[in-house]
Q: What sequence folds into this?
C-alpha cells in the first residue's frame, strides 16, 4: 500500500520561527500521532502540506501524488479538521450540506452527513453561532467525513473539549481507521488522546 503522506526535508522560514528539515512518512492504512507543544510548528506543517503555505524547500506527497498539478484529485480524497470551526456563524446544517455538495459534487454523501450530524446530536435548524465548541468540532468532523476521504488530517481536533466529547470523537476516528485504505495524521499535544488509538 502506498504511503498516505511523505514529507522530505521541508523547510519554511518566518520571522522568529522556522521549520527546519522536517521529514516523516505516514504509511497507508495507519494512524500517526504528530505530537508537539503549542507553537512547535504542527499547524504550519499541516498548512504547508495542504498548499495553504508555500515551503521554501522540500518535497511532499499526499496519497502518492504531489499537490502541485494534482490538487483537485488529492484534496477530493482528504478530510481536514482544524482546531477552530470554519463554517460561518449564520449557517445551518441544511445550508452547509448544500454548500458542500456544490464543492464535492457526486463525492458528497448527503445521507452520510445527515447520519453523522444525527449521531453527534447536532440541531438541524439552529445556526452555527449557537453551537458549543464541541458541537462545532463535531460539525467539522461530519463535514470532513461525508465525502468518504481516504486520509484524515486532524489539527488539535480534541483540544479544549470535555472528556466525554473527546471520547465520542475518538470513537469516530477509531471506526474510520478500521478500513485498511484509510489513514490519519493526528496532530495533538494531548498524548492521552493518542494513547487511546492504535498509533504507529
A:
Amino acid at each position: 500500500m502506498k504511503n498516505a503522506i511523505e514529507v522530505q526535508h521541508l523547510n519554511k522560514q518566518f520571522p522568529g520561527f522556522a521549520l527546519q528539515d522536517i521529514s516523516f512518512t505516514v504509511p497507508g492504512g495507519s494512524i500517526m500521532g504528530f505530537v508537539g507543544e503549542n507553537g512547535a510548528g504542527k499547524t504550519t506543517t499541516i498548512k504547508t502540506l495542504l498548499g495553504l503555505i508555500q515551503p521554501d524547500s522540500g518535497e511532499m506527497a499526499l496519497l502518492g501524488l504531489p499537490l502541485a498539478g494534482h490538487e483537485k484529485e488529492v484534496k477530493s480524497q482528504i478530510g481536514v479538521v482544524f482546531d477552530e470551526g470554519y463554517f460561518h456563524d449564520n449557517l445551518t446544517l441544511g445550508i452547509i450540506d448544500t454548500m458542500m455538495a456544490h464543492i464535492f459534487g457526486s463525492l458528497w454523501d448527503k445521507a452520510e452527513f445527515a447520519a453523522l450530524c444525527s449521531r453527534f446530536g447536532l440541531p438541524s435548524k439552529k445556526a452555527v453561532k449557537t453551537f458549543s465548541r464541541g458541537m462545532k468540532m463535531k460539525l467539522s468532523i461530519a463535514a470532513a467525513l461525508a465525502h468518504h476521504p481516504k486520509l484524515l488530517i486532524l489539527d488539535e481536533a480534541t483540544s479544549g473539549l470535555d472528556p466525554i466529547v473527546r471520547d465520542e470523537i475518538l470513537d469516530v476516528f477509531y471506526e474510520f481507521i478500521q478500513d485498511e485504505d484509510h489513514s490519519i495524521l493526528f496532530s495533538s499535544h494531548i498524548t492521552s488522546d493518542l494513547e487511546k488509538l492504535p498509533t504507529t
Remarks:
- The longest helix spans residues 163-177.
- The domain at 5-195 is CATH 3.40.50.300 (Rossmann fold).
- The chain has seven helices and seven strands.
